[in-house]
Amino acid sequence: MDIEDLTLEEKCENLMTAVVETRKRFGQKCVDYQHKTARVENQLLQLRLESFSNYECKRKNPLPDLGIDDVALNIEDIKAEIMEKQIRIENLCKRLNNTQEVLLQLKNDNIAKKMHQPVTIESLMARAKEKQQKPMC
After folding, report:
1. Is-contact 11 3, C-beta < 8 A?
2. Less Cβ around it within 10 Å: N or C end of the chain?
């Protein structure tokens, strides 16, 4: 079959399959290229990390030599400070609970309710009438 004998549709179809095949090959090559570049970048990063980790830093000012006794004393001081703060927090929690209990008692206290009621002649008269109207059992 000659190219001239093919119809226009067949020519287009052949061209489209060629385009699809080249796109597939090009896409696969792009994916392979990205994988290879990612691998090379990871290897470069590993080399940099190894070179940084192998490099010895020379300090301008040497670190002071702390004796073991100083460190032990500092740790004991820190422990004592933590214990003091813990005791203070526990005391504050106890005081808070006591305050809450006192507030609940005040809220339920009848005398406190009466103290908040207005003291006028009208209110006293109204309360006295209410007491008289209630039957005593």
Report:
1. yes
2. C
- The three-state DSSP-derived secondary structure of 52-92 is HHHCCCCCCCCCCCCCHHHHHHHHHHHHHHHHHHHHHHHHH
Q: So what's the pLDDT on residue 61?
A: 79
Could you give the CA distance from residue 90 to residue 97 in angstroms, rounded to a whole number? Answer: 11
Q: CA 22 to CA 25: how far, in whole Å?
A: 5
Rounded to the nearest integer, the mean pLDDT of the chain is 81
Query: What amino acid is encoded at 109 in this protein?
Result: D
